[in-house]
Amino acid sequence: MTFIRTIKGTQDILPGQSHRWQALETTIRNIMDRYGYKEIRTPVFERTELFARGIGEETDIVSKEMYSWTDQGGENLTLKPELTAPVVRSFIQHNLGGQSPINKLYYIDALFRRERPQKGRYRQFHQFGIEAFGSEHPEIDAEVIALAMALFSNIGLTGLTLKLNSIGSPECRRNYRNAIRDFLTPHFDELSETSRNRFEKNPLRILDTKIPHEIEILNDGPNVSDSWTEEDKTHFNEVCALLDAMGIQYELALRLVRGLDYYTRTTFEITSTALGAQDAICGGGRYDGLVETLGGKPTPGIGFAAGMERILLALGEESSSSSTNQVYIVGLGDAVRPTVLELAENLRRNNVATEFDTLRRSMKAQMREANKAGVKYAILIGDQELASGQAEVKDLSTGDQQKIALDALVAHINSLPF
Ligand code: HAM
User: Fold this and answer.
1) b/e sequence 43-55, b meaning 16+ C-beta within 10 Å
2) In the chain, fewer beta carbons within 10 Å around the N or the C end?
3) Tell me: the pLDDT tens digits for 60-112?
4) What range defines the domain where residue 383 resides?
């Protein structure tokens, strides 16, 4: 039979790796609690229209990267490629805004984009992120960014750069789009095919180019700050002042445009020097018009999402063992089997992580297994011990051995240092 492998761009998280994911998830949940964000979980698939309208028809995500299909009932559905649109949908559908003027939500989830796979870029990947609804003021922008930086520092990520921009109000965006078009018109013939296609539909995306001669042309081009309204400028300056007050360092990135169309005003990305070409750990910003675009009452919002595979790549392999077992019961002979299982059950009920052999192996093989499992203590029971109502407790780090009555074992193990 031929073997069926994973789909390109997807990966298994194997037992040797899952503890790293769990540790990251635990830190995320702790920090979210600290900042007052509550978890929201949304379905794996939604109507395609939600993403088309929310993210924008002309974005790379919607125009070429979505896993979409028509189901048996004729509905156009899509595996979620991002979470802001679904969270906004849920916010509107359940009238969360009517229940509280501020809603601070977080998620940890798997997403799907049909991108060209490479290191740090997958077709199924994981994000954690936050979305805060209800305030248009810079305080929440600063809190959202502070949370991201605190979380990354807590897990030990270094070499990070926070790139900060404001894409302005819709009016500013419109003006900036025209300014970019005007500036590029005399250079149109020098542009790549991709950029020429973007010229009409989505000229701001041309700023994302990686082609050296296009970057050179754009060096003399207009900055978004030239198109800011007075309110945009004040808002951005206040965000910067609050970040300064919190001691958070940032780089101004007046050419930073994000690949999703819903952004207004504050936009940011955090990059890591520990990553290669795909160096964005996290991206986010304000989307004050999105709730309305998706059919809700006008409500300001801001958030970010961070790629969890990229975070783990940037952290590098850690050496710590994934073992949580504390005790291994080494049983010898047919007669001791019920006692081994009874004892294991008793220890586990009393919060001791316990392992025993289910392959009926020799004592030597079981001791080897105990050492491999990284446990601190082995409990040895053979026919003799059973007859005397005692077991040997062996400290595997020192080799010390002690006889303990079977009915006192659980209490004894619980009194030992681990
Ligand atoms: P995004 O920039 O598309 O934003 O994705 C955020 C992060 O997800 C990226 O910085 C990256 O770390 C990770 N990521 C994206 N695509 C992939 C991929 N193919 N493989 C691995 N990691 C990837 C959003 O998704 C917005 N919804 C963020 C947001 C939330 N804005 C406001 N609220």
Assistant:
1) eebbebebbbbbb
2) N
3) 999 999 999 999 999 999 999 999 999 999 999 999 999 999 999 999 999 99
4) 327-415
Strands laid side by side in the 160-166 sheet: 38-39, 103-112, 124-133, 301-307, 280-286, 264-272, 160-166, 251-252
User: Is 113 close to ligand 1, i.e. is its CB under 6 Å away?
Assistant: yes
Residue-wise pLDDT for 126-185, tens only, equals 999 999 999 999 999 999 999 999 999 999 999 999 999 999 999 999 999 999 999 999
Full-model pTM: 0.92
Task: Please state, in angstroms and rounded to a whole number, the distance separating the CA atoms of residues 156 and 14.
Answer: 23
Domain count, the chain: 3
C-alpha to C-alpha distance for 129 and 148, rounded to whole angstroms: 9
Residue 125 within any structural domain of the chain: yes
Backbone φ, ψ for residue 299 (5° rounding) = -145, 125
| Pocket of ligand 1 contains residue 84 by CB under 6 Å | yes
Please name the residue whose Cα sits nearest to atom 30 of ligand 1: 304
Q: Is the CB of 285 under 6 A from ligand 1?
A: yes
Residue 119: the pLDDT is 93
Residue 3: inside a domain: no
Q: Which atom of ligand 1 is nearest to the CA of 61?
A: 3
How do residues 186-206 score in pLDDT, each as one tens digit? 999 999 998 998 898 889 889
The last residue of one of the domains, among 318, 340, 355, is 318
Residue 86 CB–ligand 1 contact under 6 Å: no
- Indicate whether residue 131 lines ligand 1 (CB < 6 A): yes
Q: How far is the CA of 116 from the centre of ligand 1 (A)?
A: 15
Q: Ligand 1: which atom is nearest the Cα of residue 311?
A: 12
Return the CATH number at 79: 3.30.930.10
* Same domain for 310 and 406: no
Residues 58 and 201 in one domain: no
Asked if the structure places residue 9 within a domain, the reply is no
Whether residue 390 sits in one domain with residue 357: yes
Ligand 1 centroid – CA 314 distance (Å): 16
